[in-house]
Fold this sequence. Notes:
The chain has helices at 13-24, 41-46, 67-75, 95-115, 154-172, 194-199, 219-229, 254-261, 270-282, 290-298, 305-309, 319-328, 337-351; strands spanning 3-8, 28-35, 56-60, 79-82, 121-127, 177-183, 185-187, 204-207, 213-214, 216-218, 241-245, 252-253, 265-268. It is an alpha/beta fold. It is globular, with a radius of gyration of 24 Å.
Amino acid sequence: MGTVVLVTGVGRHLGARFAAELRRRPGVDLVVGVDVQPPGPALRALAEPDGPAAPYRFHQLDLRRPAVARVIAEHGVDTVVHLAVSATGLGSTNRSAVKESNVIGTMQLLGACQKAPGVRRLVVKSTTGVYGSAPRDPAVFTERTQPKTLPGGGFAKDAVEVEGYVRGFARRRPDVAVTVLRFANIVGPGADTPLTDYFALPVLPTVLGYDPRLQFAHEDDVVEVLCRASFPAEPGTVNTGTVNVAGGGGVLLLSQCARRLGRPTLPLLLPAVSWIAGLARQTRLVDVSPEHLRLLTHGRVVDTARLRESFGYRPVFSTPEAFADFAAAQSPGLLPPGRLTAVTDGLAALLDPGAGRTTGPGTTTPGTPARPHRPRS
C-alpha cells in the first residue's frame, strides 16, 4: 500500500500548492485535505496538477472539533502534515479565534493522531518567530538556541505552544516520526502573509534608527522541504526533529527590500509606528502585529546548517533571490528601481561632471589637466 496523507490548511495558497505537488509524487495513494472553509476557484485549480496524480478528497471541518479523528480513521491516514497554524484566520480576523484555531485545533489533531494506530509520520509547520526579536538577540539562531525573551503574544506565541504540544505527542508516541519545520518569512509570487501585505503598501513605515536584517524562504523551497519531510528519509539523511528553513544564503536589510520594491520608506519613532500599525489592523488595511513590528525593528537570522547537512536539502533560492522573485510579481512602486537608478546617476553626473566617462590613453575630460604619457619600461 502507498502513503495516505492528511493535509490541514488546504484553503490557503501554500496548502493548495503542497497538496498538488504531493499528488504528483510516486508512492502516494491518496491526499486528504481539510480546512474550515473550502478553497476558492483559484486554489481549487491550483490543487489540480497536470498529468497523472493521486486522488484527492476534501473535508470541510474545524480542527477545534473532534471530527478530524473520523476522517483519519475513514481514509486510513498514515502521514499527517499540519499547515493550519497561521498568523491569520480564514473567515475571521478575530485574534482569539485565530489563537483557538492554532492551539486548540492542534491539540485536537494531536489527540486524534495519538488514538490512530496507523499514523506513522507527523510534519508540523512552525515559524522562526519562536525565537522572538529582541535587541540582545544573538546574531544567528540555531535550533538549540534559547531566546532571550519568549514571544509575548500573537502567532509566535501560538507557535511556541504548538511546538510544546508536539513534543508531548512525540514522547507519548515514540513510534511516530515527528518533524517540526521552522520556516523563515515565506515569499514568492503567490505568497500571502502579513509581511507580504506590509511590503505591498505604497509607503513602508519603518522605525527611525533601525535597519533590521531579514531572512526569507521561497515558496518553491518550502513546498519541496515539506514533501521531503513527508516521506522516509533518504540514505545518509535525517528528516525528523526540529529544522530551521530559510533561503540558501545571504540576508537583506529592510532598506534593501524597500529599494528592490521601489517603495519609499517613512522612518518614524517607535510609538508612532505602533500607532499606525494599530490603526492599520483596525481598518483591516494590513495586519502588522506587535511581533511583526519587533521583527521590523530588530530583525532575525537563523542558521540553516542542519537543513543542508542532516536534512539533506540545499535551497534553490537564496534570501536575495527569493525576495527578487517576490518583488518581480508586485506592482511597481512609487520609486521603481530603474527610475531610481537613473535619478541617482543623474545627480551623480551633476555633482561630478567627469564621473562615468570613458577616457582612453592620451585623452582628457574637459576641465581636467592632461597627464604626461610615460612609456612602460
